[in-house]
Amino acid sequence: MIKPGVKAPYELICSTAFLLKRVGMLAKERTMDAYESIGANPYHYSVLAVLEEGARDTQAKIADALGYDRSWLVGLLDELEEQGLIERKRDPEDRRRHLVSLNPAGKKRLAELRAISKRVEDDLLASLDAEQRAQLHGLLSQLAADHDPRYAPAATEKTVVDKTVA
Question: Is there a contact between 97 and 82 (Cβ–Cβ < 8 Å)?
């Protein structure tokens, strides 16, 4: 709870890294609350978004794309499969692997999660105009890509961003 008249220490207010962490924590808290209200979580959203792209069909590729521990991902996939959102099948070319695909219910759920994500983002960034939001996104994209090549812009980036805006 935020108490009126109480300020954070000046040293922390002057720290860009601290402010990024604080805003990130706010975004995570709000997103978790919003997703939990419909029985989901941000990890479900991430997995469904990866599957919609279609290029990552094995459990290992999904885990690598998201930076998740492979054994932890199995639990997430179990949850999504139990909810009827994905299908897992043995790879006919390599019986050790499972192929994962998004089904129609998963696509519908992804649309719901996208809408929630957009509402949370709009609320969090309400004080910024469109140009400021684009600038912030560009700077954060650059920083993310500098520290993790998985976040380097791709040719499909505009398409993905457009889906979250729709």
Answer: no
Q: Please, how many CA atoms are within 13 Å of residue 121, restricted to the half-sphere of its CB?
A: 15
Q: CA 79 to CA 90: how far, in whole Å?
A: 18
d(CA 86, CA 104): 9
How many whole angstroms from its chain centre is CA 1? 26
- In a 10 Å sphere around its CB, with 0-12 CB exposed, 13-18 middle and 19+ buried, how is residue 52 labelled? middle
| Tokens describing residue 36 | 């939990």
Residue range 62-71, pLDDT digits in tens: 999 999 999 9
| 99-117: pLDDT as tens digits | 999 999 999 999 999 999 9
Is residue 52 a contact partner of residue 63, using CB atoms and an 8 Å limit? no
Rounded Cα gap, residues 92 and 99, in angstroms: 9
Tokens (6 digits) for 81: 């499969």
Q: Distance (Å, rounded) from C-alpha 20 to C-alpha 136?
A: 11
0.85 surpassed by pTM: no
CA distance 151 to 141: 7
Of 12, 27, 53, 2, the C-alpha closest to 160 is 53
